[in-house]
TrEMBL record:
One of its GO terms (cellular component) is cytoplasm. The keyword Protein transport does not apply. It comes from the Bacteria. The active site is at residues 113, 255, 285. Residues 239-328 form the Beta-ketoacyl-[acyl-carrier-protein] synthase III C-terminal domain. Residues 256-260 are annotated as: ACP-binding. It is an enzyme of class 2 (transferase). The last Arg residue of the ACP-binding site is essential for the weak association between ACP/AcpP and FabH. PANTHER family: 3-OXOACYL-[ACYL-CARRIER-PROTEIN] SYNTHASE 3, BETA-KETOACYL-[ACYL-CARRIER-PROTEIN] SYNTHASE III. This is Beta-ketoacyl-[acyl-carrier-protein] synthase III. Pathway: Lipid metabolism; fatty acid biosynthesis. It comes from Actinacidiphila rubida. Transmembrane segments: none annotated. Homodimer.
Length: 334
C-alpha cells in the first residue's frame, strides 16, 4: 500500500477591515511614507479592532478554507501563531470547537514566521502516517497585540491577518500534492527575534517584570542577512531533493517580511524577480499568516494558476526556517 500524500484542496483568508497607512504611522512616529516604502516595500497594513483576537481571525479563515474545499469535517486542526489568545490553553482547540468540527485533535505550532511551513509539514506527516485523512492548517496573527506602538523598527512592519488551507490524503502525482519539505533551526540566534519577558525564563529571575519586555523585538540587520541565507539555502536544498530545476519554478511564495529580502532570496536562487509573489505592500508582515495570505492574493489576481510549480520558503524566530513545494491545483480561494 502506497503512502498517502497531503494534497491542497482548499484556501481561505481573513483580514481585519481597518487599514493603517504609512501616513497614519508617520503622524506619531519619527518616520515617513518614503522611509517605510524604501526599506520594507510596505504601503499599508491591517489591524484588528479592540476585542478581536487571533482565534477570531483563525475561525474566519478556517470557515472560508473549508468552504473552498467544499468539506465540513477534518481529522486534525493545526494553528500556527505567535500571538495565541492565551499562553494556556492553546488556541487551536477553541478554533476547532467554534468551527463545529467536534472533538478532533488540535494543537498550536509556535515557529513564528516559519510557523505555517512547519504546520504544513506536521499536517503532511499526520496524513502520511494515516493519523488523519484531512487536516485544516491555519496561520493566524494579531501582531498588533505584541508590537510597541512607539517602536518604529517594528510598528511599521507588522500587520494582522489569517490564512488557512485544507489538506487531504491523496497521491504524489496529483496537482496540489506537497512534494517535499526542508526545515531547520538555530537556537544560538534566538535573541534576534524574541519577546524578552512573559515566560518562565523571566519569571525564574525572581525580579519584577519590566513592562517593556512584553513587547516583540527584532534585530533588523542580522535578521535580514540570516533570512536571505537560510531561505535561499533551504529552498535550494528542497529543489535538489525533488528534482526541480530552478528555471522550472513558476512562482516563488516567500514569507512576506520585506520586499528586499524576497528579491534577494529570488536572486540567490536564480528565480526571476517577477516570479516572486508579493502582497506585503498591502498587508505588511503577518508572520505565520503571510504565506497563505500571499497565496490567496495571488489566486485572486490571477498570478497563481493550475499547473504552476510553486516554491514556498520562510524564516522566523527561533531562529527557524523551512521550505515546501507543490504543483498548484485548480481551486477557488475564498
Amino acid at each position: 500500500m502506497s503512502t498517502p500524500t497531503a494534497v491542497l484542496e482548499g484556501l481561505g483568508t481573513a483580514l481585519p477591515p481597518r487599514v493603517v497607512t504609512n501616513a497614519e504611522l508617520a503622524d506619531r512616529l519619527d518616520t515617513s511614507d518614503e522611509w517605510i516604502r524604501s526599506r520594507t516595500g510596505i504601503s499599508e497594513r491591517r489591524m484588528v479592532a479592540p476585542g478581536v483576537a487571533t482565534s477570531d481571525l483563525a475561525v474566519e479563515a478556517g470557515e472560508r478554507a473549508l468552504k473552498s474545499a467544499n468539506v465540513h469535517e477534518v481529522d486534525l486542526v493545526v494553528v500556527a501563531t505567535t500571538t495565541p489568545d492565551h499562553p494556556c490553553p492553546a488556541t487551536a482547540p477553541d478554533v476547532a470547537s467554534r468551527l463545529g468540527l467536534g472533538p478532533v485533535p488540535a494543537y498550536d505550532m509556535a515557529a513564528v514566521c516559519s510557523g505555517f511551513v512547519y504546520a504544513l509539514s506536521g499536517a503532511a506527516g499526520a496524513i502520511a502516517s494515516r493519523q488523519a485523512g484531512r487536516v485544516l492548517v491555519i496561520g493566524s496573527e494579531t501582531f498588533s497585540s505584541i508590537i510597541s506602538p512607539e517602536d518604529r523598527s517594528t510598528a511599521v512592519i507588522f500587520g494582522d491577518g489569517a490564512g488557512a488551507v485544507v489538506l487531504r490524503a491523496g497521491s504524489a502525482g496529483e496537482p496540489g500534492s506537497l512534494l517535499g519539505f526542508d526545515l531547520g533551526s538555530d537556537g544560538a540566534l534566538a535573541d534576534l527575534i524574541k519577546i524578552p519577558g512573559s515566560g518562565s525564563r523571566q519569571r525564574a529571575t525572581g525580579l519584577p517584570p519590566d513592562p517593556d519586555d512584553s513587547w516583540f523585538t527584532m534585530q533588523g540587520r542580522p535578521v535580514f542577512t540570516n533570512a536571505v541565507k537560510r531561505m535561499a539555502g533551504s529552498a535550494d536544498a528542497l529543489l535538489k531533493r525533488i528534482g526541480w530545476p530552478v528555471d522550472s519554478v513558476d512562482r516563488f511564495v516567500g514569507h512576506q517580511a520585506n520586499v528586499r529580502i524576497l528579491h534577494a532570496v529570488a536572486e540567490q536562487l536564480g528565480v526571476p524577480a517577477d516570479r516572486a509573489v508579493i502582497n506585503l505592500d498591502k498587508v505588511g508582515n503577518t508572520s505565520a499568516a503571510s504565506i497563505p495570505l500571499a497565496m490567496g492574493a495571488a489566486v485572486a489576481d490571477g498570478d497563481l494558476a493550475p499547473g504552476d510549480r510553486v516554491l514556498i520558503s520562510a524564516f522566523g524566530g527561533g531562529v527557524t526556517w523551512g521550505s515546501a513545494a507543490l504543483v498548484w491545483p485548480d481551486l477557488t480561494a475564498l
